């Protein structure tokens, strides 16, 4: 029985709790879309996503949002996030409990057995079930749009063989003529590598830091010619 609350894992504690056999989220019956969104683990390394090593969206777990589904919130907090932070392992049964709730609340029978899009899962759980505000504000062509995650769309580019996340985000924003209206509290990015069939890149290198200076709308930047504050931007 895990305690009611536990802080996200950091540094040596994260390595000690999360690395090794029988760690992470146990996969079962096409659950990878959800496992990867909540936590992703490889053979000798860990890449935390929403909860294991960060508290940026912990409000999803504790705040009494006006539209919040208390049952989904408690399952996510008590059966998934807390065990992940304390023991480093989440049983597939706990994930199925959440998937059954998503099937019931989302009026979609395939959440328990089919491969789903991570964006669909995140939008359902954040917007419809927990009622939190959108995490991103984007602008394109003078029109603003709110969303919970950003999916990279771009044409295949021959000069990018093994790209990093920084390159993909910058090129995707450029090709779609997008800007961030404000600095996001949480920037969730879906890579162009997902599903059983589609793999645009064989590998993508994680960028440990993401520079969004050139992606921000009306952000003061230095002119690359004279060094003063820039007044014009060339794509």
From TrEMBL:
Q: What is the lineage of its organism?
A: Eukaryota, Metazoa, Chordata, Craniata, Vertebrata
Family matches, as PANTHER family: 40S RIBOSOMAL PROTEIN S3A
Recorded hits in InterPro entries, A to Z, give: Papain-like_cys_pep_sf
* Keyword Oxidoreductase included in the entry's annotation: no
Coiled coil regions, renumbered to chain: none
Q: What is this protein called?
A: Ubiquitin carboxyl-terminal hydrolase CYLD
Q: Which domain of life is it from?
A: Eukaryota
Q: Which organism is it from?
A: Dryobates pubescens (Downy woodpecker)
Report if keyword Cytoplasm is assigned: yes
Q: Mind listing the GO molecular function terms for this protein?
A: hydrolase activity
């Amino acid at each position: 029985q895990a305690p009611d609350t536990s802080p996200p894992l950091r540094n040596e504690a994260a390595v000690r709790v999360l690395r090794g056999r029988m760690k992470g989220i146990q996969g079962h019956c096409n659950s990878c879309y959800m496992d990867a969104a909540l936590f992703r683990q490889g053979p000798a390394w860990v890449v935390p996503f929403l909860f294991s090593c960060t508290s940026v969206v912990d409000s999803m777990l504790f705040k009494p949002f006006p539209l919040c589904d208390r049952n989904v919130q408690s399952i996510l907090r008590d059966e998934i996030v807390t065990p992940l932070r304390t023991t480093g392992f989440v049983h597939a049964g706990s994930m199925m409990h959440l998937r059954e709730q998503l099937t019931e609340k989302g009026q979609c029978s395939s959440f328990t057995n089919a491969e789903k899009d991570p964006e669909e899962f995140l939008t359902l759980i954040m917007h419809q079930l927990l009622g939190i505000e959108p995490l991103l504000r984007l602008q394109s062509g003078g029109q603003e749009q709110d969303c919970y995650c950003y999916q990279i769309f771009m044409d295949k580019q021959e000069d990018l063989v093994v790209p990093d996340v920084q390159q993909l985000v910058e090129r995707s924003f450029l090709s779609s003529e997008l800007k961030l209206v404000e600095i996001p509290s949480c920037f969730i990015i879906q890579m162009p590598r997902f599903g059983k069939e589609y793999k645009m890149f064989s590998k993508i290198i994680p960028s440990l830091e993401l520079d969004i200076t050139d992606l921000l709308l009306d952000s003061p930047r230095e002119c690359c010619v004279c060094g003063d504050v820039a007044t014009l931007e060339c794509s």
